[in-house]
Amino acid sequence: MSLKDTLLSLADNPKMREFVVQNKLTRGVSRRFVAGEVLDDAIQATRMMNKKSIQTALDLLGENVSSEAEARASTQDYINAIQLIHKTGIDANISIKLTALGLDISRELCLEQLFQILEQAKQANIFVCIDMEGSAYTAQTIEIALAAKERFEQVGTVVQSYLYRTQSDLEKLIEQKVRVRLVKGAYKEPENVAFQQKSSVDQNYLTLMKMLLARGNFPAIATHDEVIIDAACAYVRDHGISKTSFEFQMLYGIRRDLQEKLVQQGYNVRVYVPYGSQWYPYLMRRMAERPANLIFVVSNMWR
Ligand code: FDA
């Protein structure tokens, strides 16, 4: 098993979660990638970024609730975030996960929660992006995003270039003018559903990116891959597409230099700002993407 696979497996390991979350040092180090444990931390992080003309997407960490009460509590948390964004006037929108809204319990419960959030978001004029989780949820997430778009304008979702099915999903989303964030994909997926080679994932990303830049509704090109970012800049320049018709998105704490450079070049940049107490699986996925981050964490544990 590769280091990447090991780290992705540990993301779902409750004993490891317990160890890392209880450890004061790893908690401190998680701040490199997570704004903090409460909503105010994400608001503060946004204020700092707005000063640099960078917008944010607030992500309350947490996934896979197993009771209706937890799903309702997540809904309330997301609504609180929308209300505080509106009240403070910061330039932010939100990202949500359907498994945090009870998708594992029932589609009905999840839709009820989602529509409550979207109702609040509509009143506050704030966009809501439905994150994409593991492949067991892809079909349902696409279907729910399309259903939500029939009732609400300000909703979008995410597609992952490592999945074979994504090009066909993307056609449907583009046709219904759903706003899409394009990512490579962060979960451990088997070879019957996903490309295993980085070169194939990247190649598919470029194909999907061009579809979105040419025909998408204000798409988000979410990556830290400079080769891909350069290709996006060249594509819009060569095809006379406005720099303001899409946005680049990156994760909190990753490639801040590149975020600022793109803003200076006149592109929209949005940073995904995770916050909340359930940061462990998120942190492990960031380690898996770049095992050098593990050295950063381990070396800080001994400081
Ligand atoms: P890649 O992994 O090839 O990295 C390219 C370069 O970027 C690396 O060489 C390194 O320099 C830098 N880099 C990448 N990751 C890094 C890290 N963790 N630490 C330091 N440097 C790093 N996934 C998903 O499945 N569902 C989702 O909903 C989302 N949502 C989402 C939102 C946003 C705004 C972003 C940017 C990403 C996601 N993702 C996601 C995660 C995504 O699928 C992917 O795992 C990461 O973006 C890493 O892939 P890159 O595209 O950056 O390329």
CATH architecture annotation: Alpha-Beta Barrel
Task: Write down how many β-strands occur, each being a DSSP E stretch of 2 or more residues.
Answer: 8
What is the global morphology? globular
Amount of helix: 40-55%
Main beta-sheet annotation: 8 strands, parallel, barrel
| CATH topology label | TIM Barrel
Give the strand order, joined by hyphens, for the main sheet: 1-2-3-4-5-6-7-8
Number of domain units: 1
Structural class assignment: alpha/beta
Count of helical stretches: 13
Q: For this structure, what is the CATH class?
A: Alpha Beta
Mean pLDDT: 92
Give the termini distance in whole angstroms. Answer: 30 Å
Strand content: 5-15%
Assembly category: single chain
Residue windows where pLDDT falls under 50 for at least 5 positions: none
What ligands can be seen in this structure? dihydroflavine-adenine dinucleotide
As a whole number of angstroms, the C-alpha radius of gyration is: 18 Å
SSE order, one letter for each helix or strand: HHHHEHEHEHEHEHEHEHEHH
Cofactor: FAD
InterPro entries: FAD-linked_oxidoreductase-like, PRODH_bac_arc, Proline_DH_dom, Proline_oxidase
Enzyme class: oxidoreductase
GO molecular function, one term: proline dehydrogenase activity
